[in-house]
């Protein structure tokens, strides 16, 4: 796992070099973004087929589609969504090299993360460090199809903020062509109605989350026989206690991070933002924690949380950046190591969930 620690050290160094460009907690320097984006594009595109639980299947599908004579034949190769198959087919017309295919997809996915952070974060460095600790980069790297759906959701964010429903719906429907779970993002358009910056808003949403968490497990168990795609997960590893324990730990870490950030002025951060972006980002903080809590009833919902993690990170990072200097530094010193330790523990104790380390490149694989 030396690479995991090396990546964190490089990101810390980049953040340290950016300290001189900060003004009242605002840091729009691109060094941290360039380091993180470049490192993960390289890491994702150069991986061997043994890195990542789903990589062997991604490679099999790409090789099969590369050998297909028509798009209709390509669609018969896999159960994957048509948009993903079409992208495989288009790239395979130019090259049959799987790592070049990974490079193209990595540029799209990690590029969207960089654009989102640079556009909405007050401090790029803090947002990048928290995103690394919250496993955003690893998740997008390993969940290739969903990473593309996440990218399209992030690109739909301006439509969400500007209240352009047609554009938002079209982008989300496009995202479902890469991962069908993106369909659940359609109701997210109404997230702007959540007052996550007030105690009453959190109380009301908390009651809904509690009700959903109690009932979801019962409902899904009773109707599992009609869930053609998700039913088998109820008796798979997703129903095991280890994964449920990891979900509980993830919920606790998110709550602690949100509470620490709140000490820097949660309501004030919203009041000081005339654009209204902070109110929406903080609604995502609530929604992220809520989905994680509801997923205790059905662990597959953890996959939905992957869409919400980056807005969560940018939201709490922005609140911390608006605090006075002692509080801001204290919050950053507490939250960044907490998130990093949380991810490090999961990688060390449950390596079979990720198949990420020891990392092997395609160059080592071909020796």
Report low-confidence residues grouped into runs of 5 or more.
225-229
Largest sheet: none
Q: By helix and strand content, what is the structural category?
A: mainly alpha
Overall geometry = globular
Helix content: 55-70%
Transmembrane segments: 30-50, 100-122, 142-161, 168-190, 202-225, 246-268, 280-301
Protein name: EpsG family protein
InterPro entries: EpsG-like
Signal peptide: 1-20
Please render the helix and strand layout as text.
Blueprint: H1 2-17, H2 31-45, H3 55-66, H4 71-75, H5 82-94, H6 98-120, H7 124-133, H8 136-142, H9 144-155, H10 157-161, H11 165-176, H12 199-223, H13 241-262, H14 266-271, H15 277-294, H16 302-305, H17 309-321, H18 325-349, H19 362-365
Helix pairs in contact: 1-2, 1-7, 2-6, 2-7, 2-8, 3-5, 6-9, 7-17, 7-18, 8-9, 9-11, 12-15, 13-15, 13-17, 13-18, 15-17
Spell out the key features of this protein.
about 375 residues, mainly alpha, about 0% strand, about 65% helix
What would a concise description of this structure say?
With 367 residues, this protein is mostly helical. It is built from 19 helices and no strands.
Describe the protein.
The chain crosses the membrane at residues 30-50, 100-122, 142-161, 168-190, 202-225, 246-268, 280-301. Residues 1-20 form the signal peptide. This is EpsG family protein. With 367 residues, the chain is an all-alpha fold. The protein has a domain at 194-323. The protein is 67% helix and 0% strand. It is built from 19 helices and no strands. It has helices at 2-17, 31-45, 55-66, 71-75, 82-94, 98-120, 124-133, 136-142, 144-155, 157-161, 165-176, 199-223, 241-262, 266-271, 277-294, 302-305, 309-321, 325-349, 362-365. α1 (2-17) packs antiparallel against α7, α2 (31-45) packs parallel to α8 (136-142) and α6 (98-120) runs parallel beside α9 (144-155). The model is unreliable at 225-229 (pLDDT under 50).
């Amino acid at each position: 796992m030396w690479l995991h620690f090396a990546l964190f050290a490089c990101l810390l160094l980049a953040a340290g070099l950016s300290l001189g460009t900060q003004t009242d907690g605002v840091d729009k320097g691109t060094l941290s973004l360039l380091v993180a984006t470049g490192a993960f594009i390289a890491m994702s595109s150069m991986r061997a087929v043994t890195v990542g639980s789903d990589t062997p299947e991604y490679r099999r599908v790409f090789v099969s589609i590369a050998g297909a004579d028509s798009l209709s034949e390509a669609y018969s190769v896999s159960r994957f969504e048509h948009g993903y198959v079409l992208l495989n087919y288009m790239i395979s017309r130019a090259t049959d090299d799987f790592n070049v295919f990974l490079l193209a997809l990595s540029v799209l996915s990690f590029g969207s993360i960089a654009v989102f952070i640079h556009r909405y974060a007050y401090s790029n460095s803090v947002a990048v460090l928290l995103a690394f600790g919250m496993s955003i980069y690893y998740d997008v790297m390993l969940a290739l199809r969903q990473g593309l759906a996440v990218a399209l959701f992030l690109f739909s964010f301006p439509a969400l903020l500007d209240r352009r429903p047609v554009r938002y719906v079209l982008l989300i429907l496009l995202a479902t062509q890469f991962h069908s779970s993106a369909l659940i993002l359609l109701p997210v358009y109404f997230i702007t109605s959540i007052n996550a910056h007030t105690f009453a808003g959190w109380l009301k949403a908390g009651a809904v989350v509690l009700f959903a968490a109690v009932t979801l497990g019962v409902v899904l168990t009773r109707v599992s026989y009609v869930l053609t795609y998700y039913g088998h997960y109820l008796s798979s590893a997703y129903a095991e206690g280890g994964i449920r324990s990891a979900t509980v730990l993830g919920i606790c870490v998110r709550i602690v991070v949100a509470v620490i950030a709140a000490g820097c002025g949660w309501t004030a951060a919203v009041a000081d933002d005339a654009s209204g972006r902070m109110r929406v980002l903080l609604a995502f903080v609530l929604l992220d924690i809520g989905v994680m809590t509801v997923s205790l009833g059905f662990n597959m919902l953890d996959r939905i949380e992957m869409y919400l993690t980056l807005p969560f990170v940018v939201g709490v990072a922005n609140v911390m950046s608006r605090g006075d200097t002692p509080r801001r530094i204290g919050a950053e010193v507490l939250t960044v190591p907490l998130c990093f330790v949380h991810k490090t523990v999961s990688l060390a104790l449950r390596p079979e969930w990720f198949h990420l380390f020891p990392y092997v490149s395609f160059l080592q694989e071909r020796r």
